[in-house]
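Lab notebook, design round three. We kept the backbone fixed and only want residue identities now. Task for the bench partner: fill in a sequence for the structure below.
Input structure tokens:
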């Protein structure tokens, strides 16, 4: 169904089935599939990947396995997770921008970082950060009011909002004056260096590829920029607030201590953690908010239901996230259809048996939330936008069939933070504006680092009563 047909169809058209990339032929050659992966990884899978429990293939001389059963995923990501590590290509691509932070650390280093950071991201820390989230959202709504009735790029607006939330929750100040530089770093890296090249895949990790030289130069500029942000935060506000009370994530991370060794993060480690949290946090939240607004623009009835809930929750003067059950369901369903992290790739450190398949050392195991969330055996109407499936009273999805933040010991440490900020922001935005699409051409998801739109459609926003 085209976008024009979706927008012009009567209300009985529900449920909405948004556009998706075409399926790749199942017999596509290895070179053809590699070419597709470089342009759009989620367009490289054929129908079998959405139907079979396990899809076997070959990848640069090694066997590869796409796993689509909850039991197999539990085995790899929970029961035997220490046997599965990031691939050398993944490390090459992410290390220059994330350093040795939590996302890339392995073994003892990861365990030390995880337990040190855990208190900063515990549910009890979220109330400290909610005022920062709401203030950034209110400022974004104020800026958008000047765009009412005009074509507006909500993708860019959500990137700015998510970056502002990241800056305020991390440093207690706006990143407006640094926003252009930060987005420039992210865009430059995504366009030039984030995709693995042929030699990145072929060479051992200890052998630098030509792209690694460019990544090393980027790393120098990036770490210098992050050091400047941290120095500015310390100069403006010191380490903690009055009486030593924390004010933001930076205070919580500076105060964090390993519960076993009582060691704090060094300045270099702190810089890598800040990089990881700002980049991973703002990019995934911006993506989730954009796709949510896109789907709601295609589905006005669902948008109005969300607006009604949000206005009711706002009536008391304070926005309580626990009252936003439908808003949260819309967000959950959006992340099912457009998971921010669309692919988890692991290399086997040693032999194993998964779902009856023999895994050899260095074989590649792929767990794709994109495939898993749309798998024919796991979901009713898997390609349809149906937020009701996540409402209370309906059976919850299998814990290992829905992975917007991963699962197991390495589940995203900021998941609760991200869900809170996205739910609050979406509720306030839709309570303030009716969101309409001006551009009727399909918007196709592209899997690069996150699940991005292939272009930025233009919207119109209209103030609600």
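Proposed sequence:
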């Amino acid at each position: 169904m085209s976008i024009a047909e979706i927008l012009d169809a009567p209300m009985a058209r529900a449920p909405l089935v948004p556009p998706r990339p075409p399926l790749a032929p199942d017999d596509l050659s290895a070179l053809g599939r590699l070419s597709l992966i470089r342009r759009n990884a989620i367009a490289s899978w054929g129908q079998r990947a959405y139907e079979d429990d396990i899809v076997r293939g070959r990848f640069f001389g090694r066997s590869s396995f796409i796993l689509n059963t909850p039991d197999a995923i539990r085995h790899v990501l929970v029961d035997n997770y220490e046997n599965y590590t990031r691939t050398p290509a993944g490390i090459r691509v992410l290390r220059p921008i994330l350093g040795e932070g939590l996302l890339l650390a392995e073994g003892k280093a990861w365990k030390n970082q995880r337990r040190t950071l855990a208190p900063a991201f515990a549910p009890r820390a979220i109330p400290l950060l909610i005022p920062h989230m709401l203030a950034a959202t209110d400022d974004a709504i104020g800026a958008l009011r000047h765009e009412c009735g005009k074509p507006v790029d909500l993708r860019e607006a959500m990137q700015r909002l998510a970056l502002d939330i990241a800056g305020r929750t991390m440093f207690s100040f706006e990143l407006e004056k640094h926003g252009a530089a930060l987005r420039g770093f992210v865009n430059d890296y995504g366009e030039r260096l984030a995709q693995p090249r042929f030699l990145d895949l072929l060479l051992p990790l200890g052998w630098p590829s030509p792209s690694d030289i460019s990544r090393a130069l980027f790393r120098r500029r990036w770490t210098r920029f992050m050091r400047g942000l941290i120095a500015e935060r310390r100069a403006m506000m010191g380490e903690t607030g009055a009486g030593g009370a924390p004010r933001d994530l930076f205070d919580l991370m500076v105060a964090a201590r390993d519960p076993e060794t009582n060691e704090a993060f060094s300045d270099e480690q702190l810089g890598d953690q800040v990089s990881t949290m700002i980049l991973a946090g703002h990019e995934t939240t911006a993506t989730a908010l954009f796709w949510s607004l896109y789907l709601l623009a295609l589905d006005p009835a669902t948008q109005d239901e969300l607006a009604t809930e949000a206005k009711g929750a706002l009536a008391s003067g304070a926005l309580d996230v626990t009252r936003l059950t439908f808003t949260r369901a819309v967000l959950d369903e959006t992340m099912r259809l457009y998971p921010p992290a669309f692919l988890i790739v692991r290399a086997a450190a040693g032999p194993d048996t998964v779902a009856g398949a023999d895994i050899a050392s260095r074989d590649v195991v792929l767990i794709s939330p994109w495939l898993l969330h749309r798998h024919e055996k796991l979901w009713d109407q898997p390609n349809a936008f149906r937020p009701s499936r996540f409402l209370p009273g309906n059976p919850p999805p299998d814990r290992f069939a829905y992975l917007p933040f991963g699962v197991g010991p390495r589940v995203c440490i900021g998941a609760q933070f991200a869900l809170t900020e996205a739910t609050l922001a979406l509720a306030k935005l839709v309570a303030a504006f009716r969101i309409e699409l001006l551009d009727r051409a399909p918007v196709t998801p592209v899997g690069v680092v996150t699940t991005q739109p292939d272009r930025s459609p233009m919207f119109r926003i209209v103030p609600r009563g």
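Keep this in mind before ordering anything: Residues 241 and 247 are 6 Å apart (CA to CA).
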